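Hi! If you just cloned this repository, the fastest way to understand the data is to look at a raw example. We've pasted two of them here, unedited. The first protein comes first, obviously.
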Amino acid sequence: MIAAVILVALIVALAYCAAPVLVWTVGLAAWLAAFQFVFHCEVHAAVWAVFAVVAAVLNIVPLRRAVFTGPVFGVFKKITPAMSQTEQEAINAGTVWWDRDLFSGKPDYNRLLSFPDPKLTPEEQAFIDGPTEQLCAMIDDWKITHELKDLPPEVWQFIKDHGFLGMIVKKKYGGLEFSNYAHAKVVTKIATRGGTAAVSVMVPNSLGPGELLQHYGTEAQKDYYLPRLAKGVEVPCFALTSPYAGSDAGAIPDFGVVCRGSYTHPRTGERFEDVLGVRVSWEKRWITLAPVATILGLAFKMYDPDHLLGDKEEIGITCALVPTEHVGVEIGRRHFPGGSAFMNGPTWGKDVFIPLEWIIGGREYAGQGWRMLVECLSVGRCISLPAMSVACGKLTSYTTGAYARIRDQFGLPIGKFEGVDEAMARIGGYTYQMEAAQDLALTALDNGEKPSVLSAILKYHNTERMRKTLNDAMDVHGGKTVVLGPRNYLARGYQAIPIGITVEGANILTRSMIIYGQGAIRCHPFVLREMKAAMANDGAEFDKAITGHINFVISNFVRSLWLGLTCSRFAKSPKGGVTAAYYKRVTRFSSAFALLSDMAMFSLGGSLKFREKLSARLGDMLSGLYIATASLKRFERDGAPKEDIAVMSWAVENALYDVQVAMDGFLANLPSRGLAWVLRRIIFPWGLTLKPASDRTGTKVARALMEPGGTRDRLTHGMYVPKEETDPVGVLGHALNAILATDPVEQKLRKLARDGKFKTITARERLAEALQTGLINQEEFDAVTRARKLKRDVIMVDDFDKKLEQHDDKLLQRLIF
């Protein structure tokens, strides 16, 4: 009995620690020897012989390859699905970072906590406090979206003059050369004031000519275009999406044929005859800044049927820079994205001849466009839309928290009703998650990483949380934000939600195919190694990878069972106190996620690629683990303030609950029902034990939004808050402070009314009566009068002349058509 217990303990320990084969061999041999000589139990010679044979096969590499991994390699090469060039380039693009730890089953929290905290330099902070603040003060979002349908000329000029279009351009070219963190915080601040201005600023700094030129442009292209982009002399756009190729961007029908031709340079007027170039035809849609762009980044498929460049006929996707005044380039018309007025429109051209030197990077980068785009996208998707989502969280936290305390019904602030309280908890919790997730990814970017998997997580989950926070904020405000007008600070963002959900990879696609599709291959410790070995027909490398992979599976099998049985109580945590249990739960679910990933690939093989619902749930698991650890990292970065325990707990507990829900759904739908049954007993031996954050925790989050304090300040830090009482957002702060300051007097007046002390009826009359009878003093009277005025300013909505709608339609028609 003792020997059996020792054997089980030995196997568990070896598996839990993912011991190498040699250690397994030595450990089991030692146990057999002890079983025979210490416990005096006979071990038949045949047992030793079998053990020796197995040990030799597993430890002697040539023998192992001949007997085991070689045959497996042959099968693996046959069943591994072929990857297209675009798929290979997408998988190879970018880098892996903390996401690899989450895939490992054993996250290194000391590594997580050692990542440097993102910070602004004095120059970056001065830019945010100066020009960015000034720009926000110039923005009248109602006028922009309702009347002008564009930024005013003076705002456009301010953006250009102060370098907003060149934040990513290096200083030697006249740009600001800001960090990715600063870039994101500038976009966030502007977006809290107006989406049109934020998009107009972020697009030239995201995926577009500037980003592509800095990484791949020729020196001549950089020297000419980057200074002009930095100063706003050039307004860039990038045309990738076509009517027939949206999410499947690699299938763009736009094409160019290599040929010899002539052209007149649109800038210099110089004529060039008989030069080698490309005759391009394209039709693009949904291209931001296209109607006003001076330089067009253009993606097209390039062909060389006459072999003017070499033996290859299909060159591949290529990116070029084309001045929009070049003969044959058509721009000027525009789309009208819902709720926003940023410039967006089509561009097209037929048989437009461009020289090879207009290809970004020159002739040698012909056909490299898809790789270039995917690599740059892994950076841009971490910044632009996630930053706008964070801005939405900050704006809804600030405005909804204040409004819910100012607005009362049935004698109570509406924020104290549990239904409203529940919605506000989501707003605060999601805001915490969104900024934490983005800030951690920005740390990676500023340390030279290009985390393609994390960028997909951010794009999907931040924009989805933006949708949820805006829905909740609209519900809490009720009629206040139903009516459009200058006083409505939420409805335009609400109308524009589908834009963020759709662009830069539609969310349905991102969740169901991209997050796990890239993550399973890029982040898994062994899968990419195995696939590369198969493509290279490298049996030796495959042997190393597959033996490590098997050990990895065994380890996670045992770890998942142990952590499930013990509810992760004995797992390690880098911190004590309130966060310790959360780190341990992440470890448990990381092991379970790694096991489920391998079992999915084992049972479904290449068909997993087409099982999008299962892939989506696996992606949800990875995303939830990332969001939970990012929230823990943020809590430590902020100094672990006690005030933030509630919002941190809400963020982590709900992220981990989402992981559990995804695992439950995955197991319920895994085609191999027997395997699903076994996995459920391993991962959830006591059932689904995790719960979402409690109502009590949610109430603490909601109350933190309703009154000034550290949590509210940290959640809304970095947003633009106007100082004027006449501003619909600015008045909220003044009204909130006034309401809180006069609450004791208002309570006193209500009690006097209940006791029948007033002869008058209305609230205004009773306030005056209280002053006249000495129940309150003049200072209290003035304070209550001001507070009530500010409260009315907050709850009022706009009204217009009944002919406004007709006028608005004509204006819109004139501007667009």
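Ok, and the second one:
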Amino acid sequence: MIKVNLSDLDDINLTTKLPSANDVLSYDSTQSSWVPKSLSIDSAVSKPYVIDLATWNIKNDGTSSAATTKGINDALVWASSQGITHCLLPNGTYTLKIDNTSFSCLLIPSRMHFEMADGCLVQLEATSSPWYRIFSLKGTSNSRISGGTVIGDKKSHMYQLAVKFVRGGVNPDGSLNANPNFIRSEVVDRYSNPGLLKSFRLWSMTGVSSTGYSFFQYKDTVSSSTLAGSRTNGLFAPASPTGRGWFAEIENANKMIFTIDITSSPLTDDQIAQLAAKVDSQNYTHEWGHGIELAGANHIQIDNVDISNCTGDAIFASWFEYKLNPADYTQDQMGSHIYIHNCDLHHCRRQGISIAGSNDVTFTNNKIRYIGRADDGKTEDGTAPMFGIDIESMWSETNIPTWRPELNQAGFELNTRIYIRDNYLLNNNRGHFVNADGIYVTLDNNTFEGYNVGGISSYLNNMYVKYLNNTMIGCELTVKGDNFVDGALCTNGNIKLADIAGAVITNSKVVNGLFYGSSTYGYFGTPTVDLATGTFTFSTPHGLGNGAKVIFEQWIGKVPAGASVDKLYYTVNITANSFQVSETLNGKPITITDIGTTGFNLSRYNYGRCYISDITVERDWRADNSLSPNFQLLLTGGILRNITVKNFEMDIRTPANYAGRPITIDGITLIEGGANFEACNLSNSSFLRAKTGILGGDIALGSNDARYTRKVIADNCLFQNVGINYNGNVTNNRSTLINSSIGKTDSTTIAVITNSYLENTKINLHWLTRDKSVTIAKCIFNNVTTDINANTRMLDNLTL
């Protein structure tokens, strides 16, 4: 055996730091040496400090809220000062009281793991404060909260006070008087209701005609010597919704009396005794009572905690604090590296979790349920928004210089890189998830269950948002902007398209629900042209700014001479409904020499960016042919591939008078359903029925509506046991029609069927009155019957 001292080796550094943790070494590439491993809180193997309840005067029987709150905080401060990084609160029930000025209960220091033992319940005593945080981590780093049950005061919370009155007033010096023409309130104690009274409102009362009141504030007791200040210009709510404040901090102004002049509406003593004025807060929704609040916190872990019945959110994560000078903000103050897992967040009034600024947030294996609902899981019992997860920093309403890539705006990252995986969200009152301004957001393998209004959505301008392999049961996924959806499974739920601008939706299934919505972003159509000025005017506002990129197209019609379909143009001299175009940014408007031919398109250069593939929409059985267009889309040039619809109808169309790029559809399989198509290039599709078809026909290719004149092209399609109506301008090539029927409305539109195989099929076109309405050429007929007249041309067809 060879024995050697580690310090004698040239790649070992034991001088900077002594070994610990069973002498574990790790390689430091910057030093090119092995050094003692640094332990994180998570990897610490030492036993936690079990908080001694007697030493810190803590009660675990639900009593002595003030002493218990102080005791736990004192224990944490002491432990931190001793270098202890893990404290364990024993089982029991702990009632907490908010601080009068910070509105917080427990303050978690940095580098501290606060663990609640099994059976540990922490509850907030009833308060009237619109704000509170049971756990506060402000500017905290490298800390953890785990275990236990945390209960807010939702069921006992006080949203207002009822203040009684006696006859008499208050002199200007603050002393009391017996003036019969005034009524005076009982003394209002700010210590008892510090949050509610921070910005208070006094409401008008029936029988009192005065429009205003006076108020007097005191230190500790009511006398002329303790008067902190007074005002005579108070106005009653709700006519005046703005609250009034205090003349000093709570320790110097904590008592208050209201007085009202009743000269114009005298009251008897009995009437005065019946008065009870409502006093509430300007912040009347009381939506800021949080279970755990992170403010500018970094490297935080929250796990295995049950949080419920808060008046606001179970967990709220935001930036540090408001700075008067924007230059004083730092990236660390935005908060980062928050890891929340295996928690149960439920029955809170406002949200399950709000991510309101923090970056690099991972949220996994949590339950979020019944937000905004009462114990029965049905009755609404909350305040908006009432979502399970809300990503919303409200950066545009702050003075924080914020990085926004969609605006080419530099600044600090807020709500960036958020990963939400393997969570279960159930019956949240208005929605499960909403992303107002998060960037690089991924939702992976979550289950969302229960009907809601808000659904699961991300706003239009949020970049790099991905929905991967999520399950929606009885709710709706709303896809916006350039969201990426791969693997959505909806049962009794829907996928909706709204404000699409580049979105991809693929590998998804909808059972007993809808796949519907519209994608018309950036399409404007044919404008009215002012030849003299080269101005293009639209019937509705276009929403563009100067310098927006636009293009001309002439799928139908002809662009004005002087404009080109091969060039990219920039808008100049915009009004709400009009603009001119230039070949260079902020350049001179182009000159046109004619107004073109009606039907050309002038739109954003990137309109029509909607990509849908590998979608199934189905139900097991349809009892009748009542029309159910559960796959229904309004598109401007979108692309669809590999779509299967069973026992429902399809409706894919463009806006009226559409002048843009056709919708491209490749690979539809429609089973036991009908379909309508407008302005589509349709290929490689199958339309199959075994049951009795829809009266009047199953498949409509185009229509005879004068607003829809664009051609439908159908290539290499199979129609079996269906009725096909060639109602629009249709070219149908290389298709197979078996046990089907061909019909058409009598209109000016022209239908052409070529190079196709028809078997056991009926051609019913005898009522057509316009020349050359239908042409059937170079087709093979096998047991085909015809009922036609001279307006249907039959050319070079072969009958077997």
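That's it. A detail worth noticing about the second one: The longest strand covers residues 227-235.
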